Amino acid sequence: MLRAIFISLLFIVSLVFVFQNQLIFLEEYTIYLDLFFYKLGEKSVPNSIIIASSFILGFIVCIISIGVGTIKKSIKIGELQKKIISLENSKSEKVEKIDQ
Question: What is the total count of domains within the chain?
């Protein structure tokens, strides 16, 4: 519940910020990219596109990093569950031998 309230407040504050600063988002900037294998000439891009693409790129990086951690943890959980099963089986075999 507290998390939902915090997210809602953050959303409202961000909306207020965007509406109060619309002129900043409408400005255009000239970008230029020169790599060894790819060259992008001077191109005029609105600030809102730069902000949106940065957000999307950050989102993708976060999802990938969270996904990698989750996959590693699920693999580790699977290995540990197999160890638990093998230990339980060996324990039950030892108990059966003692009972006989």
Answer: 1
